[in-house]
Write a structure and sequence with these properties.
Strand order of the largest sheet: 1-4-6-5-9-10-11-12
CATH topology of the largest domain: Rossmann fold
CATH superfamily of the largest domain: Alpha/Beta hydrolase fold, catalytic domain
Number of strands: 12
Number of domains: 2
Distance between the termini: 30 Å
Oligomer: single chain
Strand content: 5-15%
Order of helices and strands: EEEEEEEEHEHEHHHHHHEHEH
């Protein structure tokens, strides 16, 4: 196979161990923990060209490249990261990590609790977006990065990018907040709760300690993913791809799979339940629910964002109804009211919320143009 000049190629995950206790927003403390991460590109002499990629609900550290030559798929944002791509690894040093509570190597519910010698399970503490940012800052310290050229994320990742500018305002030059929101609506919290209930009421859940029972709450996790996946797509997108197509071409007058969209959702649910941890799903959705930087400012988002010193790019997508353009505009208005520098783009797309992972041409051009200016600032 001819090497792709625009790929970061084969990559190897790294593990950072931390022995300094981390006190979480809940009041719980993690005495020891580890973060799994990957890096792409080279850090320049003054460590000014580093970019942090923050993952969304089901994401992880494997953002670009492949772990093995025969991998069927590359990292989850490989279309955006690599030599000559918008997040250009010939100019930037890019870091992706798996957050605390994750199930891809960082300390989480499926990890061994050193105090018991058993998986953490239900005893793993709830984590929040600010908790993740504190842990990410410690990783930045370990890597010798005092200030990020940019922190970038979509959806829940965008919330982390936003939080970085508030928790560590002097450590972020640019924040790219994509397909995100300043807090969840009641409807979004409701979707998350239904997904959690599917898991919590699965007989194989065992109060979160299913590891000890040798089971997986597969049915609940499958349903949670199916529900979530519906909200990530647009009606137009689903209609164009599946419409009312029948697998057999005729009604079967039963309750098995008949429509192509049913087949697709069940496939997605089955695949997800094979590799994702149910306790991690619960934690990630709770982190989404709790995110609300304006809460400490009597609901005044402009006052909250007044702490920021970074420049912002806020981007939304026309068919994203999970985190609609109106939610991004709330962030933009608050930044303007706080007299902060912000650029905004609402991008035409049929892909719904998942558009931030796609390659719609206007989106790619926007990212390339903005990050080209960031590169010039750091002399990359």
């Amino acid at each position: 196979m001819t090497p792709d000049p625009h790929s970061v190629g084969l990559v190897t995950p790294q593990t950072a161990l931390f022995d300094t206790p981390l006190t979480l927003a809940s009041g719980a403390t993690l005495e020891h923990y580890q973060l799994v991460f990957e890096t792409y590109g080279e850090l320049n002499a003054d460590a000014s060209n580093a970019i942090l990629i923050c993952h969304a609900l089901s994401g992880h550290h494997h953002v670009a490249g492949r772990h093995h030559p025969d991998d069927k798929a590359a990292g989850w944002w490989d279309n955006m990261i690599g030599p000559g791509k918008p997040i250009d690894t010939s100019r930037f040093f890019v870091v992706g990590l798996n957050n605390l509570g994750g199930c891809h190597g960082s300390t989480g519910p499926s990890s061994i609790n050193p105090a018991t010698g058993q998986p953490w399970g239900a005893s793993f503490p709830v984590v929040t977006v600010p908790d993740w940012v504190h842990a990410q800052a410690r990783l930045a310290d370990r890597l010798g990065i005092e200030r990020w050229a940019a922190v970038i994320g979509g959806s829940l990742g965008g919330m982390q990018a936003l939080q970085w500018t508030l928790t560590y305002p002097d450590r972020v030059a640019h924040a790219l907040v994509i397909a995100s929101a300043p807090k969840l609506t009641a409807q979004n919290i409701a979707f998350n709760d239904v997904a959690r209930q599917a898991i919590l009421t699965d007989p194989d859940f065992h109060g979160g300690d299913y590891y000890a029972h040798g089971t997986v709450p597969r049915r609940g996790l499958r349903l949670a993913r199916m529900l979530g996946h519906i909200t990530y797509l647009s009606d137009d997108g689903m209609g164009a791809k599946f419409g009312r197509m029948l697998k057999s071409g005729e009604y079967r007058y039963g309750y098995d799979v008949e429509f192509e969209i049913e087949s697709y959702l069940r496939y997605q649910g089955d695949k997800f339940s094979d590799y994702f941890d149910a306790n991690t799903y619960l934690l990630m959705t709770k982190a989404l629910d709790y995110f609300d930087p304006a809460q400490a400012f009597a609901g005044n988002l402009a006052a909250a964002l007044g702490q920021a010193k970074a420049q912002f790019l806020v981007a939304s997508f026309t068919t994203d109804w999970r985190f609609s353009p109106a939610r991004s505009k709330e962030i933009v208005k608050a930044l303007i009211d706080a007299k902060r520098r912000v650029s905004y783009a609402e991008i035409e797309s049929t892909h719904g919320h998942d558009a931030f992972l796609m390659t719609d041409a206007p989106y790619v051009r926007l990212m390339r143009a903005y990050l080209n200016n960031v590169a010039k600032e750091v002399g990359a």
